[in-house]
Amino acid sequence: MPNKALVRSRAAELRARFEKAGAAVAETSLLQPADVLLDLYGEDIRARAYVTSDSLLGEQMLRPDFTVPVVRMHMEHGAEPARYTYAGEVFRRQEADARRANEYTQVGYEVFDGQDPAAADAEVFALIQDTLSGLRLRAATGDIGLLLAAVRGLDTTEARKAALTRHIWRPRRFRALIERFAGRTTEPPHRAALLADGDPLQSGVPFIGLRTPDEVRARIARLREDAAEPPLSTVQVDLIDAILNVRETLPFALERLRDIAVDMPAITEAVFCLRDRIEALDKRGVDVNAIQFEGSYGRTNMEYYDGFVFGFYADHADLPPVATGGRYDALTRVLGQDSGIPAVGAVIRPDVMLKLEGQL
Amino acid sequence: MTIKLGVPSKGRLMEKTFDWFGARGIALARTGSDREYAGKVEGVDNVELVLLSAGEIPRELAAGRIHLGVTGIDLVREKLGLWDQQVEVMAELGFGRADLIIAVPACWVDVDVLDDLDAAAAAFRAEHGFRLRIATKYHRLVREFLRENGVADYQLVDSQGATEGTIKNMTAEAVADITSTGETLRANHLKILSDGMILRSQATLFRARRAPLEGQDRETLDALLDTLGL
Q1: Hey, is the C-beta of B140 within 8 angstroms of any chain A C-beta?
Q2: What's the CATH number for A138-183+232-313?
Q3: CA-CA distance, B162 to B155, in Å (whole number)?
């Protein structure tokens, strides 16, 4: 059987399995409105998705994932609780590595159910793990919610917390901000001169463009406030680092995070969530002692996961993860709805499964 | 069989390229009427001159339709993915110097570095309801640079010319463009970000890694490069 047909038939099997688990089949268009994806991911998505256009509808993107269209569909017609499954191709530009597929099949399972988040997390994880049980895979997990809680709990201004939250998915930028807020980097000379100047807007250059003098003044006022703010304490920076550096199996990670929560009570709720998730996983028959938790896991993925994140990997450096997933409670809000709809989901790549089985 | 050498088809870039080759014993010249894009090569046999727009030379090199080509490193890196696997730099020619930079209105006294641009972009999006617009024709290079430097909440808008004017015309808030002296930027009340240097470019002689060499092509190429002292 040709490769594509093999992948397709495996995808159909997987989707049938997810239907049996209680999901309704969702179909989405190959062409997705570009503006929605651009607003969500920012300009970076252009480096990862194929953009096309016509003179009437403007820019469209070849579906780079299913989650966004499925969430939009659910926002329009869905009622909670709901479970969806889908199978089909997604398209990703691969300009940095020609060996990576630019078109591949995903089979997904998404749960919209706010009743018991820990149980829903465990349901999705256990279903994926069970589906992949014939392969020797390593599971990695993380929790973006813990990091978000840690940032919220920092003893500093709302402006600094907002800046850190905005860059939580950009580790380098996040680190640079932490260093700056901790007073560990020297301010650029221009900054000091600007703040010392009584009336920096009287520079004699004409005002051009859409950004108004008031916006410039407001930013200078924020910079002044920030300059007056004491630096982030070493203790707090160390606590953030301690969370990011956790690398243990789930039960040990929980213990470690409980210790950290003693000094940083703001993460207590998030640690309880982790505890509940571990219990729910255990109840589902998942061997939690065999699952790794990494404090920084999932930060470089697409930036809609805001809670539990996980992936299944083969010990094979050349292969992408066999499955990835996570919780994205805030996505519906970002996509324009007033309130978030708690949701968690995952996708499997049947082509990678087949490769590992030696069939491709 | 001939070795094909792609050279910009008009203007100072063409003249300077002819001068550079001429100084090394290879005479390049246009033939026929002023409007006809035909040329000849003297000083080495079996080399054919192909006059092309500088912007098309990267694509022709990548396709292997020309063996050697002169164009800016900026165009090669913008247009070719994994560019150094497709072409090899043989010589930097020392002219056609231009820097790809990010510039903002000089009146933005609060914005001096990329860090400021990022903060201003976040506030701009909250205030105006859309992402801060950066006008450019170097989409890939600018996007990669901004991603590496962690700048978010911006969008690139395409501008194929008169890019410096987009801000005054309210179609962009910042620009990413080529400049050699910065004169046009200053005249349009723009300033370059202190750390906004994306790429220093100059005219460069490239060899196509995938261009087929048939018959005596390899000897011809070696003789040409030898004459050029490369």
Answers
A1: yes
A2: 3.30.930.10
A3: 18
The CA distance from A75 to the nearest CA of chain B, in Å, is 22
Alpha carbons B153 and B162: distance in angstroms, whole number: 24
Q: C-alpha angle B87/B92/B98, rounded to 5°?
A: 100
**A266: burial class by Cβ within 10 Å (0-12, 13-18, 19+)?**
middle
- Angstrom distance (rounded) from CA B184 to CA A240: 46
DSSP A322-336: SEEEEE-TTHHHHTT
**Domain ranges (residues) in chain A:** 1-133+342-360, 138-183+232-313, 184-202+210-230
Distance from B89 to chain A by nearest Cα, in Å? 19
Q: Is the pLDDT of residue A256 over 90?
A: yes
| B81 part of contact set with chain A, CB < 8 Å | yes
- A223 CA to chain B: closest CA distance, Å? 9
Q: Which of A163, A205, A216 sits opposite B189 (nearest CB)?
A: A205
Task: Tell me which residue in B110, B143, B170 faces A194 most closely, judged by beta carbons.
Answer: B110
Q: Are residues B194 and B107 in the same domain?
A: yes
Which domain covers residue B77, as residue numbers?
3-96+203-227
Paired residues of B144 in beta bridges: none
| Amino acid identity at B130 | F
The fold adopted by the segment(s) A1-133+342-360 is BirA Bifunctional Protein; domain 2 (3.30.930)
pLDDT in tens, B59-80: 999 999 999 999 999 999 999 9
Contact residues on chain A for B155, CB-CB shorter than 8 A: 38, 42-43
Token couple for A53:
């256009």
pLDDT in tens, A105-128: 999 999 999 999 999 999 999 999
CA angle B202, B207, B211 (to 5 degrees): 145
Q: Residue A300 corresponds to which tokens in the numbers above?
A: 């470089």
Q: How far is A258 from chain B (nearest CA, A)?
A: 32
User: Using CA atoms, how far apart are residues A304 and A310, in angstroms rounded to an integer?
Assistant: 13
Please identify which residue in the block is written with the tokens 């990010």.
Answer: B102
Tell me how far CA of residue A282 lies from CA of A275, A343, B106, in angstroms.
11, 21, 60
A150 Cβ contact list (under 8 Å, min separation 6): A239, A240, A243, A264, A266, A267, A270
Whether residue A81 is predicted with pLDDT greater than 80 in this model: the reply is yes
Mean pLDDT, chain A, whole residue set = 93
Whether the CB of A25 is below 8 Å from some CB of chain B: the reply is no
Tally of domains in chain B: 2
Model-wide pTM > 0.95: no
Do A43 and B167 make contact, defined as CB atoms within 8 angstroms? Answer: no
Are B82 and A215 a contacting pair at CB < 8 A?
Answer: no
Tally Cβ neighbours within 10 Å of residue A258.
Answer: 15
CB B208 within 8 A of CB B62: yes
Helix (H) or strand (E) holding B195: strand B190-201
In single-letter form, the type of residue at position A215 comes to E
User: How many CB pairs lie under 8 A apart between chains A and B?
Assistant: 104
| CB spacing of A39 vs B131 below 8 angstroms | yes
